[in-house]
Amino acid sequence: xxxxxxxxxxxxxxxxxxxxxxxxxTKAIGDYFEQQAVEFLQAQGxxxxxxNYHAIDAKKIGEIDIIxxxxxxxRGRAQNTLIFVEVRARKQMTHAQFATSLETITPTKRRRIIxxxxxxxxxxxxxxxxxxxxxxxxxxxxxxxxxxxxxxxxAFLAY
Length: 159
Fold this sequence. Notes:
Elements: H1 20-43, E1 47-56, E2 60-74, E3 77-91, H2 107-123, E4 131-141, E5 150-156
Parallel strand pairs: 3-4
Antiparallel strand pairs: 1-2, 2-3, 4-5
């Protein structure tokens, strides 16, 4: 009796893109946390001037979740700051090998946010004299679904 060679069946390829239902759910979750971040930032005294800003030139440059302003008086002078905010939400994992929501902002993502901010400033010259910074509002959701916003001021620099 001769054994026939086994030809393993190829594994099905994972879908390259999430299903429409999963994308819709992911967007709804993202919208929820962006709204939570807006309410949190407004409670801290920031003025929201834009949400989901898409920088599009000849190609899509990037997107900024929230653009806000802050005005303070320092030594008798008004100091205006334009704040570009990235919102991140992620389930907390008990294992150390999983990244927190803040750690998911890759160098590529930072470059895209910075490029989108530059695009915004080119399109909005009235903010040319404002100081600028890049903040993150992160939500790490625990197993009970509870999350507290973590506001990281000047989370990264444009260089």
